[in-house]
Amino acid sequence: MVHNIVTTLGLAFFLFGLFVFFTAVLGLFHFDYVLNRMHAAAVGDALGIFCILIGLILFHGWSLSAAKTLLILVFLWLTSPVASHLIAEMEIWTISDIHSECREERR
Amino acid sequence: MEQVKHVVLMAGAVVLVLLLFAALVRAVLGPRFTDRIIAINVVNTIVVAIITLLSVYLEEDFLVDVALVYALLSFLTVVVLSRMVTFRQKRRKLKSGERSERHGT
Asked: Looking at chain A, which residue has its C-alpha nearest residue B91?
């Protein structure tokens, strides 16, 4: 009984994670500038991998593999913002005219 | 229930591979190199998800370790690449700034 409930919960997490990854890749195609695309990619990096790995942890059950999967999740959550920051810094340094891409909002 | 789980895992792996190919197409199409790096970052995240999924599907524990090392390597790639490009670009801009100042005086 408990096993069935855990498996159903894992399936729900896994399917939602697939949906979030689909949204991330769709956003990667939809947006037209690097800093906007980074936003779409960060959705998949944070929420998508979270939902899929939580679902897989529930499939693993109470074992060492589940702990290692949790370690992967923590590592990805710690490093994905750092990677995004570095990529954004590289973009700002290498583009010739940033103000033509990012307009300031005037009120 | 086990049957359903296996079918969903297999279908999920197929969907993830399709998304991986879509992100790879984005990496080929991307007009700037930062677009490509972002797309490759997404590809790496999807590959980590696929390897962890395989460890559940095949019930092999060592694949989780492989996924962990893959996550480490993908982070290292982005860090090394972006630090290298940023430092070179900063140095170039500083040099050209000095030169223009010298011309100005």
From this structure: A93
